[in-house]
Structures are given as C-alpha cells and as structure tokens.
Design goal:
422 residues, mainly alpha, Growth Hormone, Chain: A, 18 helices, 82% helix, 0% strand, cell membrane, TM_effector, transmembrane, transmembrane helix
Length: 422
C-alpha cells in the first residue's frame, strides 16, 4: 500500500483531521509572519528590522529546543499541542490589539515596535514545543508502513498553508488592513483548536518516564550525532535555509526594487510555496525515497541557483518564476528530509530528535532572516541575496565531495523493514 496507493494515509480519519489542523495552524502562522513583516518595515523602513523579527523568534526557539524535546517525549501529545495552540492564540490577540489604531494612537511608535518584538519572542517559545509535538503526534496516528506517503501529504498540507497564508496576508493587508488581518489569523488558530479535539489522546511510548533531563538530552543528541543519514540531511538543509533566506527581504523587493505593492508582495511570498505544493502532490505518485541522498543534494543545489536568479532579477514575473522554482526544489528537499526523520527515529525519541531538527532547520529560517537583514544592511539587498544563494551552492558541492556515503543514501531498505514489522 505504501508503494502503490498514493492516498494510503488519507484512508485514516484522524490523519485527515490532523491535516486540517495543521493547515489551519500553518496558514495562521505564515500569514501572521507576513503581516508582521509588512507592518514592521512600514514603521521602520530599515531592512535590519526584518532580521530582528527572525532573531526574536529564533532565540527562544533554539534556547528551549532540547528542553522542549525532553518534555514532549515525557508528556501526552494532544494535551501538549493544545497548550501550544492556545499560546499562539494569545500572541495573535496581542498583535491584534497592537495594530488597532484606536489603541496605537496613544502609544509611541518605538514602544509599539518593541511590543511586537516581545510577542514574536513569545511565539518563539511556543514554536519550540509546537514542532516536536506535531512530529510526535504524527507518528502515533498512522502505521509506520505508510510513513513516506503520510509525510508527503503532511508536507503538502504544510505547503498549502504556506501558499494561502502569505498570499492572504498580502491581499488582506490591501483590502482590510493590518489590524483586521490579525483577526483572520486568530480565527484560524481557533479552528485548529477545534480540529485538535477530534483526535483522541495517545499513549506515551517512552519507557523512561521521569528520566533525568540531562541524561535524556544527552541520549537525543547522541542519536542524531551517530546517525549519519539524519545528521547529514539536517546539516545540509540548515546551511541551505540559513544562506538562502531571501524570503525575509521580500518586503524590500516588493516596496523598493520591484515596486509592486502589497498584492505583488503576496504573490512573491506565495510563489515558493506554490512550487513546493505542486512538487509534493506529484511526489505522492512518484516517491522520492529511492536514491534519496543524490536527490536531496540536487534539489538544494537547484534551490541555490534559483535564489541567485531572484536576487539579480529586476522583472516581477522573472522574480516570481525564480521563487516558484525555489519552492519546487525546496519541496523535494523537505519530503526527503521528513521521510529520513520518520523512518530513522525510534518512537521513544521523536520529541528530542524533532527538537534537534527544529534547531537545525526550523530555526535556521529565522537565523536566515537575520543573516539576510544584516547582510542587506551591510552590503545592499541584491548583493546579500546573491551571496546567500552562492553560499548554498558551495555548501552542496562541498558536502557531495566529502560525504560519498550520503550521496549513496537510499531509503528503500528502511521502508521494507517497517513494512515487514507491520
């Protein structure tokens, strides 16, 4: 079934509910980030302020990641996810109030900016727990033999939210303004909470409940360090995302370089996710677990080329095409990485491994945003984007040369072993 049925995972009711919940959460989170980017740059007109947004989220996300993984492996997943979604809703309400003209007219602009950064920081705390919890809950909903298919659909829904969220952010800013856009975001966070209660509580598979935290964290780090497939995939993707974070500078391209306004900004922001979404739906029919290592290297190399083209482009539709293709290649990378993690990670360690993943890859989005904002401030926006894409290309070539074992990585044997266990 895992090999021949492209809809295998969708035949499980709870997994469908899980997908709805994940879509609502990703939609709300990605739309909120876009609205915040637009508001902050409109206030400051400083590219470094866009980098600070990413930095404010990544500091707690990285600092608390390993601790969060330990907690996730020790606790029931649905209850923990409820707390995460509730925390995000609180952040959304705060941003809704901070963008209310009747309130902000009494607050100094600088204080408004500081409050926004503070709420983004709180969102980073929530995110430290959110990623590992979703990753762990995913594994408890469907059988191991269809992990690759389920990973494809889960990643597809993630990208669908990432498509619609940024686009909706750009269009709603233009239609109803920043303040009411935040109200839409809050509504989707409530929908995610409603979906979550349609999923039953799951057993805790960790047999070491009450294990000392330092020993638990050491075990998780040791596993990632000694599993070359997991470590290689995480390291490679981290560098690519870190230096290829051109998306953080899209408000500058939309407002100052391409001059396309909020609607053009929404199109630019959605283009990578559209490309990734198409790739992911296609991969449901053409699995990527064969020759996974070479495919991952090729995908990230293609991603770097697209970022360079985008950085040099002064034509709107060429920029959209470059971002679209960057999403196609990033989609391949995401599916392969998620399949590696799901197949290679023991059930009792999913929270900790997912936390390390969030430190490597998830948080590198925000570090990439800070790197992009800082280099744009120092060397100019276009040069910063081209520099980031070039560093991605160099990283892929270097990894391919020094790691022949990773080039030969193939996941077919792992999948066959899981099917045999089922």
């Amino acid at each position: 079934m895992a090999k021949k049925d492209p809809y295998a995972a969708l035949r499980y009711r709870e997994f469908n509910v899980f997908l709805l919940m994940r879509f609502a959460m990703v939609f709300a989170w990605s739309m909120q980030f876009v609205v915040i980017e637009w508001e902050v740059y409109s206030i400051t007109k400083n590219p470094l302020s866009l980098g600070i947004i990413g930095l404010m989220e990544v500091i707690p996300a990285v600092t608390l990641a390993l601790f969060a993984g330990h907690i996730v492996d020790q606790k029931e997943k649905r209850s923990l996810l409820f707390k995460c979604l509730l925390g995000f809703s609180v952040v959304s309400i705060g941003l809704f109030l901070l963008t209310w003209p009747r309130l902000t007219q009494f607050i100094d602009t600088n204080y408004t900016l500081y409050f926004i950064y503070f709420l983004v920081f709180l969102g980073g705390i929530v995110r430290a727990f959110l990623g590992p919890t979703i990753f762990s809950l995913f594994a408890l909903i469907i059988p191991k033999k269809i992990y690759p298919n389920a990973a494809t659909w889960s990643s597809s829904v993630w990208q669908m939210g990432a498509v619609v969220g940024p686009a909706a952010g750009g269009f709603t800013i233009n239609l109803i303004g920043v303040h009411w856009s935040m109200c839409v975001i809050f509504g989707f966070s409530l929908f995610a909470l409603i979906c979550l209660f349609q999923i039953e509580r799951k057993p805790i598979l960790n047999t070491k409940i009450g294990e000392p935290i330092l020993q638990s964290l050491k075990e998780g780090i040791h596993f990632v360090k000694n599993n070359k497939a997991v470590l290689g995939a995480l390291s490679l993707d981290m560098i690519a995302v870190l230096f290829g974070g051109a998306v953080a500078l899209l408000p500058i391209y939309a407002q100052d370089i391409l001059e396309v306004g909020p609607e053009g900004f929404g199109i630019l922001r959605a283009a990578p996710a559209v490309g990734a979404l198409i790739t992911m739906f296609t991969s449901a029919y053409f699995p990527l677990y064969k020759n996974a290592g070479m495919k991952l290297l090729a995908a990230i190399f293609g991603f770097g080329i697209c970022i360079v083209i985008f950085g040099l482009s002064t034509m709107f539709w060429l920029s959209v095409a470059a971002l679209f293709m960057s999403g196609v290649t990033d989609g391949i990378s995401m599916i392969i990485r998620q399949t590696i993690l799901q197949l290679k990670t023991p059930d009792a360690m999913r929270g900790r491994v997912a936390s390390v993943n969030s430190m490597f890859v998830g948080s590198s989005n925000e570090l990439g945003a800070f790197e992009s904002g800082l280099t744009a401030k120092l060397m100019g926006t276009v040069t910063a984007v081209v520099f980031g894409g070039s560093m991605t290309l160099i990283t892929v070539v270097f990894t391919g040369i020094i790691s022949p074992k990773f080039r030969k990585l193939d996941l077919r044997k792992d999948l066959e072993e899981h099917e045999a266990l089922e």
